[in-house]
Amino acid sequence: MALEKSKFKLTPKTFKLPKFKHRKLIIMGGLAVLVLIYVVVSNAQPLSTGVVTLHPQNFSKGFTEEGEIIAAQEWPIFNPVEGKLQTLKVQNGDTVKKGQVLFEIGTSDLNYQLEALKAQVQSLEGQRLQSYKSPNAAQVAQQNLMIQQAEKDAQIEELNLKRMKALYDSGSISLVQYEEAQSTFDKAKNILEQQKYGLQLIYEQSEASQGTEMYYNNQKNALQAQTDQLIDKISKAKVVALQDGLVKDLTLKEGNLVPLGQQILTVFVSGGYKLESYVLASDALDIKVGSTVQVIQATSAGNKSLTGKVEAVAVSAIERISPLGLKENRVKVTILLTESSPVVVLGSNVDVKYTTLEVLDKLLIPKTALFPYQQGEAVWVVEQGKAKIQPVKKGQENDNQVIIEQGLTDGSIIIEDPNLTGLKEGKRIKSIL
């Protein structure tokens, strides 16, 4: 055992690692060197980023609202007579010709009312005839005889007066006698007039009282007006198409009771289409009749773009409820699609893009490229391959773009993302167009 121990002590010394504290310092120093190398290499490499080369473009500003597709020409058909839908001769999608019968309302009740009015007219005429009585023939004959006798008496007294005047003129009779003859003649004439008035009274007593004729005439006119009204309703119970077209919006069936004025269906002309869009009253002031709009229709194959022109802008706003349940004052705008036969679905909704401002030949940049800088705004530009902050003055803007009035020129290159990591002035830039 002693021999082995001595042998072990005589063995040459082997390599030993530094102590733990020294090893830690060496590792940290190595990491620092690596970081320094990484920083130097990173700074030496250019920063890859998206850039935009500016050239004058046309700027437009507007807003988007929802619109509903309707037929360019359509005629709603309303029920002209209250009653039961007796006959329905068309269905949705049917083609109709002008003058073709669409439906018919039952008129049995109206016919009964018409017959009742005719009976009332006849009854009124009977009442009127009863109001007029013929004078009694015997009374008339008696009165005529009395008139004839009175006429004879007056003639006799007249001849007697002439004789008495001649005698008075010759002095054969006194004045008193002549005056008595005159008085007797006057009485005879008065009696004749009384008998004539008696005959007139007989006829007047047989006549109706004053206003009777007016009363019956007015009653008859009132009944005739009601009769004409019923006849007009009966004639309107059979409704015909006003123009050639197709049928839509029909929801009723035969036998349904239909009130007066209810819309039954609509006849429209196929091929031409309009839009109805309701915009905020504040936006309506910027919409001009004849201006062009873009219509976006969603399809299974993607969005389809159509073109339309503003045909009319309502003169007043109406209250409508927004999708959020808020009350808004909106103005109805009617738009005519310029395509002659677009493939659309009546009643479907589309997006309508209105252009309220258009400016030509302006430098435009994305709004996201701007950032606050020294109480103003600026963009990152690339000059000689390096990044530089460029203060700018902006003008009009829309949802995505802004006009640059000062600070940039045609051909300027700007960096799209101002928040890019590692971006600073003087940094080399590798442009990604």
UniProtKB/TrEMBL annotation:
<keyword id="KW-0175">Coiled coil</keyword>
<dbReference type="Pfam" id="PF25917">
    <property type="entry name" value="BSH_RND"/>
</dbReference>
<dbReference type="Pfam" id="PF25989">
    <property type="entry name" value="YknX_C"/>
</dbReference>
<feature type="coiled-coil region">
    <location>
        <begin position="107"/>
        <end position="167"/>
    </location>
</feature>
<dbReference type="InterPro" id="IPR058625">
    <property type="entry name" value="MdtA-like_BSH"/>
</dbReference>
<feature type="domain" description="YknX-like C-terminal permuted SH3-like">
    <location>
        <begin position="364"/>
        <end position="430"/>
    </location>
</feature>
<dbReference type="GO" id="GO:0015562">
    <property type="term" value="F:efflux transmembrane transporter activity"/>
</dbReference>
<dbReference type="GO" id="GO:1990281">
    <property type="term" value="C:efflux pump complex"/>
</dbReference>
<feature type="domain" description="Multidrug resistance protein MdtA-like barrel-sandwich hybrid">
    <location>
        <begin position="81"/>
        <end position="268"/>
    </location>
</feature>
<protein>
    <submittedName>
        <fullName>HlyD family efflux transporter periplasmic adaptor subunit</fullName>
    </submittedName>
</protein>
<dbReference type="InterPro" id="IPR058637">
    <property type="entry name" value="YknX-like_C"/>
</dbReference>
